[in-house]
């Protein structure tokens, strides 16, 4: 047997990221590389800095120090649909073309926001933060497509229904308001709304957080399936080690703003090296 | 403050500066207007002044009118197409008194037309300026309450949400049910609220010969569509923009190409459709007669 | 058989120790100087008393445990791959395409159907849905899992039924290296026979297997060689050596 191709191209790099609100509040000197198709879990207790790190990585908060580098390679959905990310400023960054490394906080706000809208996705813990509650499910799902310039109502509707089906929502409820959906359904709607443009990189902040255990399981399975089908790269923040075990290929354990241990999920959970990780793993209740 | 008889024999107040506003204010508003003309569809903030009438009565439009009015201008004021409503009459009288300018109800004779909720039916010429009274200038406001965020959205052309609104219309009503304040894109750049004119008037915005100015008094924003500017109403490929149409013609003048108001005539359900543009209706009747 | 055949997996001077920070940094050396080589098509059975930590070796090969010292190497036609210092991302591909692992306990997303659980390794390799489904059903049928259970989540199954789902999941993708951690523990004799058959077929395909079998009968039937672990396990017989014994797997 030939040696398989083991190393996949880098998609996102965090280089020495620091964002502090006060001593040990925030995250400090974070370095890692996320590869294509990889699901990276960031675990830690409340206040460990994982949410701050996620905000920095996902372009919502400029770090005090360090860089977030995004590697663009194959043509993305937005390019395939004719939306050119580079239009707002073709020349100024020196990166110009569709390929290459983008320094998230060195490019203009216009490009950064376009990137977030077209190639990235963010799934909030509370679906109400990620949905427009005033408009129908279909409008929610198809908004990103409209932002990409799709202007055919029938096609938008078909895409919405297709995606509602993929997240196991009844497509006949396309015209219903998200308010009439249960918490788990709202979360699935948010996921459909995020994935409809087939982003390359998705950030998830405790996606199963506020849900009943029975609803969590179904959502976990759906996320695993979609991640596999779309070849998604995911950065997942969670405090739930069981969720991390099932979804993440790789884990970073954070404590007081710093990464104390990182590696293969099974290795972190089965053979933790750092004393804090050992404590964390041994503190989990198992039914 | 005294009333005096002016040169034309009308009544005018003395003691006020020409057209009520002081020259510094008018200069400030004109500068803002120049910027607005330079960037079609872009909302320019201006230092709005108190006018001697409440917000919602056209204070934004009046400040613009006051700033551009010259002594030789001929002013027409319409409210929903009519020259004879309280609001239109009040504003017209106001400028007669504080500027002493000639006023008219004839669209063709006017050099400045201040309007609420309509564009005259008679095509405008390049010698005319149309001033709109605007209640809410921000087309994105319905979906985004933050002014800071809407400004960024305009700056970055993030207009996907405008179609969310239209999508929602079709989903609920089977067609785009927005009939007035129908959003447009100006010069392929800024999405703009054309003020609450019926969408029937939207096509008149496109490549119009006249200069069109928009003033919002409460929000202290003004914007402009310069002459011969492309103005496109937003729509979907499979639900293209359409204007209202009527089966009836105007019951008074017989026009079949104008925007009609439905008028209830009695308590027995009697009704008639008449031109909303009173001047246009009269002209038509004049021609017939 | 030619003399120049190279092993698919080899270990050399392999050490494993755990440092327990909660117990004032106590270091537990559980393996010292282990040597092994495993040929393609060979089934090597780890021998030794229960609790000696045979699973520890399987978990090192599968990447769950770090290698403390020594070498653990996969030999491909076009070169070697050292597992002891592999970056985390390389393991994703290895586990998808090279290393299959049948653990004692089934660890899957709750409420996912047995059929789907079995299909998953194929789907992640990019096999089409239909084909994966056919192959999963064929395997489940062969393992005598009643058809009415295929659409149900294995969480509610009996130990033996869960075991069979687990075996099907482990064998379906035909990885070139299979790690078997007591796959027959809770099976009746008919199903043990099926597993023995599956192992024989895998051998014929050239699969290298490293296994733990408590059942002496099965061991006799599948083992080409046995590797006694006693001399490598420093605290032999002490079941508390491993930080995470199998009984602590998360989540159940």
Rg for CA atoms of chain B: 20 Å
State which percent range the strand residues of chain B make up. Answer: 15-25%
Q: Provide the structure class of chain A.
A: alpha/beta
Report mean pLDDT of chain B, rounded to a whole number.
93
Find the structural class of chain B using helix and strand composition.
alpha/beta
Q: Strand content of the residues of chain A, in percent?
A: 15-25%
Please tell me the overall pLDDT of chain A: 88
Dominant shape of chain B: globular
Family (chain C): Belongs to the ABC transporter superfamily.
InterPro entries (chain C): AAA+_ATPase (IPR003593), ABC_transporter-like_ATP-bd (IPR003439), ABC_transporter-like_CS (IPR017871), CP_lyase_PhnL (IPR012701), P-loop_NTPase (IPR027417)
GO molecular function (chain C): lyase activity
Keywords (chain C): ATP-binding, Lyase, Nucleotide-binding
Protein described:
- The complex is a heterotrimer of chains A (287), B (289) and C (252).
- Chain A is of the alpha/beta class and 287 residues long.
- Chain A is built from eleven helices and ten strands.
- In chain B, helix 1 packs across helix 2.
- The radius of gyration of chain B is 20 Å and the shape is globular.
- Chain B is an alpha/beta fold.
- Chain B contains seven helices and 14 strands.
- Chain C is α/β, with parallel strands linked by helices.
- Chain C has a domain of 65 residues.
- In chain C, the strands form two sheets. A five-stranded parallel beta sheet of chain C has the order 6-7-8-3-9, sandwiched between helices. A four-stranded antiparallel beta sheet of chain C has the order 2-1-4-5, with no helix packed on it.
- The C terminus of chain C is likely disordered.
- The chains are: A alpha/beta (287), B alpha/beta (289), C alpha/beta (252).
- Chains in contact: A-B, A-C.
- The interface between A and C is large, with 43 and 44 residues.
- Chain C: InterPro entries: AAA+_ATPase, ABC_transporter-like_ATP-bd, ABC_transporter-like_CS, CP_lyase_PhnL, P-loop_NTPase.
What is the secondary structure topology, with strand pairs?
The complex is a heterotrimer of chains A (287), B (289) and C (252).
Chain A: E1 10-22, E2 25-35, E3 39-43, H1 50-57, E4 65-72, H2 77-80, E5 100-103, H3 109-118, E6 120-123, H4 127-130, H5 137-147, H6 153-166, H7 183-195, E7 201-205, H8 213-230, E8 233-238, H9 241-247, E9 250-255, E10 258-264, H10 265-270, H11 275-282
Parallel strand pairs in A: 3-8, 3-9, 6-7, 7-8
Antiparallel strand pairs in A: 1-2, 1-4, 4-5, 9-10
Helix pairs in contact in A: 5-6, 5-7, 6-7
Chain B: E1 2-5, E2 11-14, H1 23-38, E3 44-45, H2 59-68, E4 74-79, H3 86-99, E5 102-103, E6 112-116, E7 129-133, H4 147-155, H5 160-173, E8 184-186, E9 190-192, H6 202-205, E10 211-216, E11 221-225, E12 231-233, E13 260-264, E14 271-275, H7 278-288
Parallel strand pairs in B: 4-5, 4-6, 6-7, 7-10
Antiparallel strand pairs in B: 1-2, 3-11, 8-9, 8-12, 10-11, 13-14
Chain C: E1 9-20, E2 26-38, E3 43-47, H1 54-61, E4 69-76, E5 79-82, H2 88-97, E6 99-102, H3 114-124, H4 129-142, H5 159-171, E7 177-181, H6 189-205, E8 208-212, H7 216-222, E9 225-228
Parallel strand pairs in C: 3-8, 3-9, 6-7, 7-8
Antiparallel strand pairs in C: 1-2, 1-4, 4-5
Helix pairs in contact in C: 3-4, 3-5
